[in-house]
Amino acid sequence: CAAALQDFKKFHAYLAEAEKRKDQLDREGLTILYNWLGHSGSFRGKQKEAIANFQKALDLDPEKNIYDPAHIAFSYLDLNDVENAWKALGDLSETHLENPHVAYAAGRLFIAEGRYHRALSIMENAVKRKGDRVKLWWRLGNFYLELGRYDDAEKMFQEMVDFNPYSGEGNIGLALCAIA
What we know:
This protein is an all-alpha fold and 180 residues long. The chain is 77% helix and 0% strand. The longest helix is centred in the first third of the chain and has 19 residues, at 2-20.
């Protein structure tokens, strides 16, 4: 844990240094910087700071950037602001559900509204599509755990382990199912 904490502190020191030099960065570099500053704020529980930085990244590249709206939605969810989370996700919740970040964000929003069947439908459909299935297996497995559907959760985590026997998340998920 001490080494991880030290790495975390180094990461934030690097970000602070990069932020001081942001006038030397091109558009892509600035987008990456603001994205990481958003994650940094989120990790530290500073959701308003996270939202501001994710928005800066999004403003720099709105056409190609479909991840930051989901990150902004997650930050609003952490503030229990479902209305602004939906606004942040916008049209992506209908047009980009094949993307695991978007599907997961929409699913989390539907869960926050108590619309569990819609959340599961989005995630289950996303798993059937191509894309980053490992992330989707993980997230759908967690949805199933939250709903007490332990057999379904176990199937998702087993998919992860079958794909990669050394998957930490998949093995942790299976362990959680075993003790549930």
